[in-house]
Each structure stands twice: as structure tokens, then as C-alpha cells.
Amino acid sequence: MLLWHNEFMDLKRIATFVTVAELQSFTEAAARLHTVQPAISRQVQQLEQEVGAPLLWRTKRTVRTTAAGAIFLLRAKELLARAGEIREEAQRANRGEVGRLAIGYLGSATSPFLPDLVQRYRRQYPGVKVTVAEMTPTEQIQAFEKGAIDVGFTRPVDRHQRSRFQELRIYEDQLKVAVSASDRRASRRSLALRELASEPFVLFERALAPGLIDLALSACQRAGFSPQVAGESPLMQTVLVMVAAGMGVSLVPGCVRHLGVNGISLLDFTPKAASVDLVMIWPKTHIPPTVQEFEGLVKGQLPAVRQQMTPPGPR
Amino acid sequence: MLLWHNEFMDLKRIATFVTVAELQSFTEAAARLHTVQPAISRQVQQLEQEVGAPLLWRTKRTVRTTAAGAIFLLRAKELLARAGEIREEAQRANRGEVGRLAIGYLGSATSPFLPDLVQRYRRQYPGVKVTVAEMTPTEQIQAFEKGAIDVGFTRPVDRHQRSRFQELRIYEDQLKVAVSASDRRASRRSLALRELASEPFVLFERALAPGLIDLALSACQRAGFSPQVAGESPLMQTVLVMVAAGMGVSLVPGCVRHLGVNGISLLDFTPKAASVDLVMIWPKTHIPPTVQEFEGLVKGQLPAVRQQMTPPGPR
DNA sequence: TATCAGTAATGCTGCTTTGGCATAATGAAT
DNA sequence: ATTCATTATGCCAAAGCAGCATTACTGATA
């Protein structure tokens, strides 16, 4: 490697040349750069080697740029400025001020509060490209694999995946029995789950939200029966409409009341089932700064969100 | 200076990072860059220090860019490409392939051949911005001072300036006596200069071309008289028109025959005066490559130019 | 004309940085 | 659990670089 000149120009040497060219003096440039004149001389010499052209025309009294030096001076200043810019940009990306934040969300459980969260975040980080996409829990896991989303609002992931994701509980919801408004029990506050043992059930498709459906099934199990599934749908709205139409009863999270489907009644039941949480999840590995910042904002908004998602009347 | 991190990012380290990011491997990057893996590790570490943000997310199995690294990778590649481009541009400037060539010229002595020279040059060096401006010899000297022109086609400069300029003789011309076509001597081939001792003279303004006029005056001096100047003009055409109008005789370079002024006759005279040369001059200090290349082209064209500027008929 | 003053280049030295080797640490896959 | 692949770290020698002293040169000045 002896005497083997580098393939690349050195930005420091370029900056030195710019200073010399603008001050038209090696000595003054040395003072400006807090070093000594011979260092400047050699830096410029090396840069001329690297560039492959003389850049400065020296007399003992004055220093001028050559033709090559003049054009190089112009371009070098641009290059140095650009170098500074890209460093700034990387730092902004590292602070989560630029970049992207792709959000997957569960429409039925987030519609009341998510738009506000997103709006607050976009105001605070206008440089971040935010996208939102409604997805079922299963679709969100797949989207994480493909890198299509950065955070997801969903149900708690199963034991298998738990180690790969970080979770933030947003709010706690309760399973409710959904019956048609024309059902004879529609006006009751509560019922025993085993009263439904022989009723037809309409459920959300298990493959798309196994956590939720398994919770419902285990509730029936504990009540001593296995529900007779008369219908399934990949859309929560459709489930509710089928219930309203009297095609069966269902077990759904209380938050579906925000979906605005008429003709149904949501009842508490005994024995009480475990609560069904809404969580925000994101992969533990390689957490982008945008996600970190979003997490902080969400945490700050948690009280407001929880108040918003708490049923207004008597529970 | 111990542990004092440089203000500038190092292009070599940036290139190393790009290689690592694209190959997604430190080890492979080391092989590609003909060095060893620890060197790569430390270069990337240093670059991350310089940038002020983590750029790569390392596991033992794979290497990925962080959010900051992803945007930095994109920009860094542009920066490296740009750095290469500006080096190329400086080299082209050094070879005279880009830049400028500002030409000052003496219209009366160059009009037959200069357009062709300029055209040839522009074809060979299309990247050079060529400008031409008609100027008297004195104006050319001033234009050189201001850096307004790079080469000049003019008369030989005086002793005082000679050391500052390089000269290339283009062609050799002879002083002629100009008389009106209606003059009784108009059809003669030659006359003795002293025949004009008592005639009125019309001359080009001395201040604008001292070399030429001093040559004419010294010719008269040697013929034993001092001409009686009846008129002066800063335009050679005007001088000739005044001669044609019979306002006087003049002493002019033979090349004025190309100006296309009618009604005059150009005669040889005795005693023969020193020849009046047309030269190309340019400052000795800081000769731009464009000028060097132009000089080469002009030298190659000299025979053609001289043939073109030689009077066709008997001399 | 000779001296002087100011500037860039060069020789040299010691410190800093960097590359290369050996090895440790770590995580994934079998 | 073990092994393999990969990156990080400790160490050393070589190279690069800054700083000092000095030289060489030129334009200005007396």
C-alpha cells in the first residue's frame, strides 16, 4: 500500500482547498483552520494528486485558481454542503423526524380514537410519511413479516409470537353477548351464558382473529357447552347485521358498539370471561425511531383514549 | 487533538458503508474492498460517529440498515457519484475540454480566416464556451488586465508589455500607400514615399494602435518628412473611405484589401518599411488549458492561414 | 541595486490513525 | 446443546499527518 493514492478525494482536504481558494492565501487559510501553513500546502498537494489536475496557481505573492480549480471550487462547495445535508437528514431520521410510520389497525376497535392519535402524530412529525391500513390481527402479523407495517393496533398475539413483539395495552374491553333487538332478552342487562347453549351462534372468522374467537369459545366451554356455529364472517359489521337479522347470537367485544350497527343489543353475561385487550404491537428487533416516538405519544394519550373507550352508561 | 472527531465525514468510509449495506455483510465487503473484516467494522463505527446516528443494525447473522442508514445509503451513493463527477469535470477543464475561451480580434486583419479557426475549435471542443469580440490593440491589452479575454489577435505589443505576453506570429503583412482610385497615381504599382511629403494624410487613431501608426510615421521619417495629418479615425473602414473621397492618402496594412472598401488603390512604396505582423498573444502567467489547445490548433492551421492572407496577384 | 519582507515548499520528527492478525463474543441453525 | 458463521475487540507495526525549522523565491522598498 506504500505510496498508493486513495481512490477517493478527502472531504477535509476539499474543505481546505476551498478555504485557500477563497482567502487566496495558504497562510491565512492555515490560521482560519487552526493549523499551520505546511499542513495546508500538503493537503492541497494531495488533493491535486487525487483530483488529477492542478487546482491552484501559485506565485510567491498571490494564489489564484486554475481553470480546473475554478470549476472545482464551485462544485466542491456544493459537495460539502450536500455532505452536511445528508448527515443532517440521517440525524433527523435517527430522531424520528423523517421516515415512515405504517400503521395497521383493527377498524372495529380503534375507530373512535385512532384518527386523533394519527393527527396529533402528524402534526408533531410532519416529516414522517404516515400510512394507515385496516387489517385483521392475522393480516397484521403477515404485514409485519413483509415489513409492510411498523406498528399494529390489534388483539394480544399468541404465546408463539409473543417473544417477537413488544406490546402496549391500549384499553381493556369486555366480551358481550350480542342479540337481536327483537330478541326476548334484548332489554335485559345481563344473562347467564349457558342460557345460550342451544342457540345458533354467528362468529367472526377464527382464522383472522384467533385470540378473540378462542376467548369466546373458552367462555362457552366454561359455561358448559360448545356453541353451535350457524354463521361466520370476515367482517365484524356483517356478524352484527346477521345477529340483528335474528340469524343467531354472538360473543363480541364491547367496543363494537362504536360501529353503529342498529338492531342489536349488547348484554353482560356470567360467568364473567377474561377481558379482551386492545394492544399496540411492534417488532422487538430493529425498532425504527418513528415507532419509538409514536409509542411515546400514544403513552401520553392513554388516559384520554381509555376514557373515550369506556362505556358511558352503567356497565 | 486526541480523540477529537473530525468535522467531516470520510468519503472512503462512506463507500465502505455503502458496500456493507448493499452486500449486507461486513465480511463480504471486506473481501470486495481487498481488506480484512475488522477494518470494515471500525470504518463503519467511525462513520456512525461522524454522522451521529447508527446506520447499520447488526445481528450475528445478518446486517440491515436502520432507518437513518437507509436514507443515508441512498444519499451517500448520490454523493459518491457526484464526487466522481466533479473530479471528472476538473480533469476535463484541465485538458481544455470544458471552460471558456474569450478571443479579442482585430477585425481588419482577421476577418478572412478567424471564423474558420473558431469554427474548427468549437467543433473539436464543444464543451468550451467561446466568445469573440472585436477590439483594437489597446483595448485588447486592457481586456487582458481585466481578464475579459484569453487570447488576442493583434499587432505586436511594445517593448514594455512584451515580457508579459507570449506571441505567435500568424502572418506577415506589408504597409501600403492608400490613394483614391481617382488619384493620378492610382494605377501605378509603386511609388517613392517622399512623393507624398506634402500631401495630406488620413491615419488610424494612434492611441488605439500605436504599433501600427508608429511604424507608418517612422517610414515617413526615413523618407525624410513628417506627414501632415489632415484626418484621423478610430475605424479603419472610415480611414479608407476618407482616402477614397480624396481627403488624403494613408499608410495601411495590405490586409485592409479584405475590408471591401471600394474607390481606393493600394500601392507599394520605397523605401521598403519593416513588415507589420499579425500575432496572437496571451498572458504568460496562468495559461488556461483552453488557450494551450487553441494555440495548438492555430499552429496547425498556420500554413492555410498564411496562404489565405497572401495577396493573390503579383505583390 | 541591494536588502527586506512575506509567502509557499521541503526536510524532519513524533504523535495519531489505520490496517492486519489473532481472538473473543454472540446468536442462529442443526 | 453444539457448532458454525459473523461481528467486535485487543494488540502491534506501518503509514499518514501535523507541527517546527528551514529553504527558496519574489515583489517591494530604501
Structural topology:
2 copies of one chain form a homodimer.
Chain A (H helix, E strand, L loop, with lengths): L10 H13 L2 H7 L4 H15 L4 E3 L4 E3 L1 H28 L4 E7 L1 H4 L3 H11 L3 E7 L2 H10 L4 E4 L4 H4 L2 E9 L1 E6 L9 E3 L7 E5 L5 H14 L4 E6 L2 H9 L5 E4 L10 E7 L5 E8 L5 H21 L6
Parallel strand pairs in A: 3-4, 3-5, 8-12, 9-10
Antiparallel strand pairs in A: 1-2, 5-13, 6-13, 7-11, 7-12
Helix pairs in contact in A: 1-2, 1-3, 1-4, 2-3
The structure holds a DNA duplex (30 and 30 nucleotides).
Task: Please give a handful of descriptors for the protein shown.
Arc Repressor Mutant, subunit A, alpha/beta, 315 residues, D-Maltodextrin-Binding Protein, domain 2, 3 domains, 13 strands, DNA-binding, 5-stranded mixed β-sheet, 4-stranded mixed β-sheet, homodimer
Task: Describe the model.
- The structure is a homodimer of 315-residue chains.
- Chain A is of the alpha/beta class and 315 residues long.
- Chain A has 3 domains: 11-94, Arc Repressor Mutant, subunit A, CATH 1.10.10; 99-172 and 277-309, Periplasmic binding protein-like II (D-Maltodextrin-Binding Protein, domain 2); 175-274, 3-Layer(aba) Sandwich (D-Maltodextrin-Binding Protein, domain 2).
- Chain A is 43% helix and 23% strand.
- The first copy, chain A, has helices at residues 11-23, 26-32, 37-51, 67-94, 107-110, 114-124, 137-146, 159-162, 210-223, 236-244, 289-309, and strands at residues 56-58, 63-65, 99-105, 128-134, 151-154, 165-173, 175-180, 190-192, 200-204, 228-233, 250-253, 264-270, 276-283.
- In chain A, the strands form 4 sheets. A 5-stranded mixed sheet of chain A has the order 4-3-5-13-6, with helices on both faces. A 4-stranded mixed sheet of chain A has the order 8-12-7-11. Chain A has a two-stranded antiparallel sheet with strand order 1-2.
- In chain A, helix 9 links the parallel strand 9 and strand 10.
- In chain A, helix 1 (11-23) packs across helix 3 (37-51) and helix 1 (11-23) packs across helix 4 (67-94).
- The longest helix of chain A is centred in the N-terminal third of the chain and has 28 residues, at 67-94.
- Chain A starts with 10 loop residues before the first helix and ends in a 6-residue tail after the last helix.
- The mean pLDDT of chain A is 92.
- The first copy, chain A, binds a DNA duplex (30 and 30 nucleotides) through helix 3.
